[in-house]
Amino acid sequence: MRNPKFSHTIEVVWELPEPLTSLKKLAMNYRWAWHRETYDLFSRIDEKRWHETQHNPVALLQGLDRKRLSELASDQGFLERLRACDEDLASYLAEPAWYSDQPDRPEDERFAYFCAEFGVSEGLPIYSGGLGVLAGDHLKAASDLGLPLVGVGLLYSRGYFRQRLNSDGWQQEIYPQYDFYSMPLTLIKNGDNDPLRVAVEFPDRVVTCQIWRADIGRIPLYLLDSNVLENEPADQGITDTLYGGDEEMRIRQEMILGVGGMRVLRALGIHPTVCHMNEGHSAFLSIERIRLYMQDNGCDFRTARQAIVNGNVFTTHTPVPAGFDLFNADLLRRYMGKTVAAAGLEFDEFLKLGRIDSENQGEAFNMAVLAMENANYVNGVSKLHAEVTRSMFQARCPEYPVNEIPIAAITNGVHTCTWISPLSANLYDKHLGSRWRSHGSDPSSWAGIGTVPDRELWSVREDQRAELIRFVASSLAMKEENPLDPSVLTIGFARRFATYKRATLMLSDKQRLLRLLNDPERPIQIVIAGKSHPRDDGGKRLIQELVQFVNNEAGRRRMVFIEDYDMGVARALVQGVDVWLNNPRRPMEASGTSGMKVVPNGGLNCSVLDGWWDEGYDPAVGFAIGGREDVGDEGQLDWLDSHALYNLLEEVIAPKFYSRNEDGVPTDWVQMMKASIARLTPEFSTSRMVQEYAEQFYLPASQAYRCMSENGQSRAKKALEWRSKVQAAWPNVSVQSSADGAGKQVTAETEFPIRAKVALGTLGPQDVKVQALIGRMGPNRELNDYKTIDLQPVGEDGPITNYEGQIRLSDPGHQGYTVRVIPSHRDVQVPSELNLIRWQ
Prior knowledge:
Blueprint: H1 22-27, H2 36-45, H3 47-52, H4 57-62, H5 66-73, H6 76-94, E1 111-114, H7 130-145, E2 149-154, E3 162-165, E4 171-174, E5 186-187, E6 197-202, E7 205-216, E8 219-225, H8 233-236, H9 247-267, E9 274-278, H10 285-297, H11 301-308, E10 312-315, E11 326-327, H12 329-342, H13 347-352, E12 365-366, H14 367-373, E13 377-380, H15 383-392, E14 408-409, H16 416-419, H17 422-432, H18 435-438, H19 454-475, E15 489-494, H20 510-517, E16 524-529, H21 537-552, E17 559-562, H22 567-576, E18 579-582, H23 594-598, E19 604-608, H24 613-616, E20 622-625, H25 634-658, H26 667-683, H27 686-729, E21 734-740, E22 751-759, E23 768-777, E24 783-797, E25 800-808, E26 815-823, E27 838-839
Parallel strand pairs: 1-2, 1-9, 2-8, 9-10, 10-13, 13-14, 15-16, 15-18, 16-17, 18-19, 19-20
Antiparallel strand pairs: 3-4, 5-7, 6-7, 7-8, 11-12, 21-22, 22-25, 23-24, 23-26, 24-25, 26-27
């Protein structure tokens, strides 16, 4: 028979001997994931079991027998280390940080960061890849900087999936069941010591969720779990797997994340001034936040929305339209109908908030558009990605130039202390001091890298490569002989196996690749890892093709595929490889953070100029595959890039790596390592990234939200009245004419006036900006590289208002200008909230 089911539960708490009690406090805060001394303390308890538990200190301690506990309790050396780690954590949590020095910050400010996945540690397997790892690094950096931030996500009882490959190289998915009571998680209780619950209304039932907290340094991460007895069996499984199930399961998960997540914060007494939607999965929170605001302030939907759009932030990580979550109207009506009605919104009006063309009823509801429509602060995750995203969503503001679509760029980063190897960290401590740990985004913290002796830096690089080879050997244990050599140039390629990432580009010319792998004087070896989404057979075929080449086509002598890519595998790779390879189709990589992680470890990047590498590349710090030109034909692009990659490996990378001085040091290679570390580590850190979010988004968004909410929402109401006035008057606004004092020719640096006559109808000069756009003339009369000059009102001629401004042209060549009118109000974001414009 099957195992009987329990009818009662009893919580059994684990206790430690008195000298070891602080171990529990250390275990329950994920700061050990980036504090090496605490990490090593747990490893010292039982190194083998520490790795078997995937670095889960709670499971490690729960599994100790009394004999080992007794040994530890009497080990004075261990107790001294324990005391030092305990004091360090207490100091870290209490000491002031960067945020405390920011001016004019209200004491009750709170930022809530929502994401469908969080990659904090491999021991908390609720992430699939880059999005989740970025979210985990965001929380860690927010903790280091002292931001008043909380995280909100889902707790998946079966995670993403564990990967196994069959004998033919085809990916198999395994979904283990995780025990949350054996993880560094705390179940949130109410005043009666019962689990706290929040409810989310579904079509014909209510689903309740319990709440777990993970402490990420100073930052609490709240995770919703639907696996409670009050729910129907099917609903208990809503939070089973990350990105699992069909479209209906996805909308259930996203309602729990967005709607349920807002209710969790309310149940905990947390009233965020800013809500950050990291990708569109949590966008339903915007409707729930409006409903709560209406409930708290007794106002209507429009007034509430005018306030909350100022306090919402949306980050998109998707470079292609197919990557966004889309839902059909019938499914949305079934699931979100009650929530929308409770917010006082007609359902057809709600549907308009999720369409690029709000009136196109045939357009699917787009979660990214919903997020954009309800957030005044929107960004892509690299400069190039922001450009691509503006192009994708230009139809939202069709009369605005693409570069003025309100999508900013905040390039991703990585949490240096999480990803740096102990060997590199010790080297930097010795030569740079400890400032790089606390001020990692300050270039001056890394300026001293040039003074590190080449021999010493190269020795660390060789030791890290050897560590990777040992890791590969342990990963392949009892499967096959490790083919890798610790003295050979080692390339890493690991990522999600989506087809646009072109994992098999290296196989375009297999014979040439084999010659490179087996070159008698300058061989290379490649370590590969990665998962494909369970429903992506195209990605699975890429894995299979690589594995079959490794196993059956002589690739096994210099190539390995590591199964079950996770944060632990990623850490070993980014710390050990000499070169990180990335070859997506440009511009389809939004950012890509794996290559950033090799930088502080002394690895170099070889990548297509896409995502972050389009910003970071310089010939002094790494290698570029191809250029920035748009070839158009994918087949031709793949052919060109594959040959560019082979040529780089054969003619540049391998020769530079193997060119050694009399001490066996590749001096040119080491100089590139130093330049890469010094320039790229501070720029592509989450410390810099989170500071930018705080300064550009969180602080101004919080201030704007507060302003909208003061004095009975008086400013929000006035902003709405103004918007209505402008929309009604806009048909009568026009630029009648413009003229300048330059004539046909002007000397560079000469200043001259531009004048414009503008009809404002019933509006006044205080309601608009009249602007001149001046730039180079393109072949189709378009303006390129233009700058914008605000013109000032200088008088009226009846219904016409005269405007004037001064222009100075510095660059020689043919320049042109035009004049436009846009709305202007201190409390309305243009064009995010009001995308009206009139061109001459």
